[in-house]
Amino acid sequence: MPQLSTRITTLNAGGDDGWGVFYRARAMAEAGAPVTELTIGEHDTGTDPAILDAMHAAARDGQTGYAMVPGNDSLRDVIASRITDRTGVGTTRDNILVTAGGQAGLFAAHMAACNPGDTALFVEPFYATYPGTHSARPAPGPVPSPTRAEDDFLPDAGDLARAAQDSGAASLLVNSPNNPTGAVYPRETLEALSKVAQAHDLWVISDEVYDTQIWQGAHLSPRALPGMAERTLVIGSMSKSHAMTGSRIGWVCAPHEVVERMVDLATTTTYGLPMYLQEGARFGLSQGPAFEARISAPFRRRRALAHEILGAQDRVGLIPSGGGMFLFLDIRATGLSGEAFADALLDTHGIAVMPGESFGASAAGFVRVAMTVPDARFAEALRTLCAFAAEHSAAA
Fold it and tell me: Global pTM?
């Protein structure tokens, strides 16, 4: 048969796309093995019944046909209002493109920001889909900018400036709160990054899907900094804030001229999203911050529980987790790689965690733990993980 394009065959250049342990754990669970999945960011509460009722009512009311490609005006208006309230930056529906989840928003933003041949920077450790999102464009390979555990994985402006200069990058992708590390970028870090972006004329693509899950510090969007609104594309999503992962409702917030062009892209890809799903999102956003706080409460509670458990031992280190639904654990004392640790933990105890190597070379020797099972089960799994690490530390 004809050959596939290099664009599609090089999306996963490394062979393992980072999800190997997750797929294996799912297969074990489907075969009947007891598995505690602490891999992906999937809420254990599910989508709130009131949101599902709003979707159902909209579908029964006939909202099952083609939707406006940029998104329904009513949903774009409430997204814009929420962004204005949360960031202080005036935002209207003209700044909003509704996308098929945050992932489609990331793809659209990079297609808008980068010409064929342009390189794109992103901070490492990174969410596992970032390299493929970059590689899907007709461009050179993506350029990660490593960070260091001793700096709590916060990006260094000098490193980014050198990477931008050396690569001739057109864009910089940042993610705060960060997945996988939980780092919440402080104002001074974001101000330094904004200076790099302006000095090197970079678009900044800011992945802010965890902005409602802040446990320490405060969320600051780069778009709110001086001179940044006109060069920042913000990715948002209903997935984490409203436990609507499967509904695939996200957005890009960008200058009006950028949104107009991204609508052209959406017309040739998704051609809009189901109206009844958009109505569920509009209803969910209309419930306000108290609703979002209720969705995030289990992760705040489990984070405190994890700090108590990890504080009682000295073999597993914890990177300070300022936000998000994950813990990033340092298991280098075991002498195992993150991949070896995760594989052995799954095989011996039926506990699935993500290897740090799934998120880039900077994360080698770490594992990411999702706080996505009920409290008692989560605590038991975390204690077992620590005991497992202690056994291997003694052997090492």
Answer: 0.95
Give the domains, in start order, of the chain with CATH numbers. 6-46+290-389 (3.90.1150.10), 63-287 (3.40.640.10)
State the Cα angle at 390 between 385 and 395, rounded to 5°. 130
**What secondary structure does DSSP assign to 13-79, as a single string?**
TTSS-S-HHHHHHHHHHHTT---EEESS---SS-S-HHHHHHHHHHHHTTTTSPPPTT--HHHHHHH
**pLDDT value at 17 more than 80:** no
Tally the C-alpha atoms within 13 A of residue 366's C-alpha that lie toward its C-beta. 26
Dihedral class, residue 339 (left if φ above 0, else alpha if ψ from -120 to 50, else beta): alpha
List pLDDT tens digits, range 262-288: 999 999 999 999 999 999 999 999 999
pLDDT at 396: 59
pLDDT at 366 over 60: yes
